[in-house]
Amino acid sequence: MENEVRVGLIGLGVIGGQVAKVLQEKAGELSLQAGISIKLHKIKVLTSDLEKPLVKQFPPDLFTTNDEDFFNDESIRIVIELIGGERPAYDYISAALKAGKHVVTANKEVIAKHGLELRSLAHEHGASLYYEASVGGGIPIIAPLEKDLRANYIKSIHAIINGTTNYILTRMSKDGIDFDRALANAKQLGYAEANPKNDIEGIDAAYKIAIMATLAFQTEVRPDGVYHEGISKLDSRDFRYAGELGYEIKLLAIAKQYDNTVEARVHPAFIRRDSVLAGINGVFNAVSIEGDLVGQVVFIGQGAGPLATSSAVISDVLRCSRDYVLGTNTSAIKISTSKTVQPITNVNTRYYMRLSILDSTGVLAAIARVLGAHKISIASVIQKETDTLSQTAEIVIMTHPATGRAIDAAIKELSMLDLVKEINNVIRVEEQ
Amino acid sequence: MENEVRVGLIGLGVIGGQVAKVLQEKAGELSLQAGISIKLHKIKVLTSDLEKPLVKQFPPDLFTTNDEDFFNDESIRIVIELIGGERPAYDYISAALKAGKHVVTANKEVIAKHGLELRSLAHEHGASLYYEASVGGGIPIIAPLEKDLRANYIKSIHAIINGTTNYILTRMSKDGIDFDRALANAKQLGYAEANPKNDIEGIDAAYKIAIMATLAFQTEVRPDGVYHEGISKLDSRDFRYAGELGYEIKLLAIAKQYDNTVEARVHPAFIRRDSVLAGINGVFNAVSIEGDLVGQVVFIGQGAGPLATSSAVISDVLRCSRDYVLGTNTSAIKISTSKTVQPITNVNTRYYMRLSILDSTGVLAAIARVLGAHKISIASVIQKETDTLSQTAEIVIMTHPATGRAIDAAIKELSMLDLVKEINNVIRVEEQ
Description:
Low-confidence stretches of chain A: none
Oligomer: homodimer
Distance between the termini of chain A: 53 Å
């Protein structure tokens, strides 16, 4: 008993099932690594889970559907939470930490919303809380921010951190298909959920960048303070023009700090085609971090999927086992400063604008006047297509840096001009 | 005193000087991170170092040229070794660990040659030994292999891990210049040392892959067991043909495990132009790791330079401070299996061969006969250039996989054929 650490797993979904399998199959090797026998002792499941074929691979008394049966089992020293969603996951994690158990979770929503509180709770009760799998699946991101790059002042993070949207954007870019078809495709392949809102609207990415920014900047960046804008408005024309201009369009999660302020935002962005992130395709994820000492480092890998995620979860179980053996625990996050998160209206970037205008003289001058009045200067204008029948033309404007506030105001004014038929799209340009 | 951990630094070269500066400039922030005041207490230097302008930035009593003065100072709890080379660095590190001091080093040669022994020594004396900076400068590589990817069976590592050679190869590939000019350029820019042998011949990369393979495969991979072949024989023609065939040429450090054997080798290799590593240019480094759970993960960044290296060194100092506060230390490496390192003659890869042959009928048939006799099958042959005056032609052969032994024997036989004027180059093709 002294030579064994018992693990309790909550959840037997796609990730939970994979983790259970690996814990079983690799038990010997993992125990050798940990210097202590790691034993999967109990799995808390829903009644419906018991019908799954996977269940037959385990002894029946491993499973329980009863909360008390699981949480009152004092022999469990490590709890793995893999049910996802805010509740009851948050309650389960809190309860485990309060009981002094080490916790491993892949739950980005809980960590983004309650991470600081839970880490303090862990510290207070001599427990550890690890959540490497909450960002970037199996790619090491949390530990590098916490430990390996700790000596740095982190200036910025640019991340492609949602596989569903990156798959869709890759299809739109490479195959020229439109959003709806790419989404349908992603669903067919299991890359998008039946209700893909959290992915498509950038909410999932907002959770992840909130977690990363909090660690990187040592200030609380709450997910509701992260501006997020989805990819559903992107049109195949935007991809075509991006390509002509030397850019790719990616859903970027961005965090920056300078002076005493912080930016944290998720939105589609033009990025230069020769940048590392522009080459990250399909369901791959990539996180580019810039530190004052290290310069730019980039981490690339599969950001989702049960196998890749189990890599992070089980490596974290090994960390817990070590903490158990040594009697140590994770520390609370050091909040060294309290930095203000900039509202998106203050954020300064270049912009791409695609407009349908009347094909007549003086239109460009009128547009330039409006932009100029809002101190937005034009870097280039390209007249893309003219429809002689309707006498409209499509133009693409690339601006110099301007604030979100200035752009919003200018767009509002432009849309009231008779000469402007439609504001087709407005997308930020991100130089890394 | 209780609330302070004293650091002793050995070496005030380019890296040592930078580390001293950062420790001084960031003292407040680092101490806040560590939860204990981190104080640079003593710097052991050579007498000649005392002439450096940097010295004036520190109080004079910080410096000592006396070994005993440094090693007998019991108040030093963390020793940073940054002199490089095997001796006396190895002796210094041993002495510090035996005295129970935590050690941080960037010394790839010492760690490659003595890492296992030094980690055991550390463990035995309750000390920690960290060496993140020994591989890939500031890019996290050691910690991911030790911790973040620990749940994986690591199948392979493919790494561009020497900035000097990657700079030279990038210039040769992009600008079509020859090796000597690219090397001269690298020297001018400070990317290559006056005597660049360790870099050019792949010895530096061999140390680094030995360190990574030992951690990844949990078996001792000694640097003298790592085959290494340098880049000086590469010709601008090889780059031209590689480009035409859809490849780049990179100096790769490769480690693989399968069944119960291990491969570890450093040599120039053809890699597909669309692979991530093919896009790593200039002094950047990249390490691609394939695990059974995580799939492929890639770490990219500046693999050298004082600032990037100081990121790893000082992050390791923070780890030591934590170990000091908690009273913990690094564990000895778990050697779970003893795997045999394959001699290069057993290693199976595809090959690129460039030959000058007599431009007459029957030559190709003769070459194919020799290769066939050694069970080497040809994937493609391209006749590249014909010199009508000397009646010679250059041909490029791409083979299917063959062992080093078979290729060596076939090359020997080919070189004796009258029809073959010269074996210009033979380069492995590495599919990742």
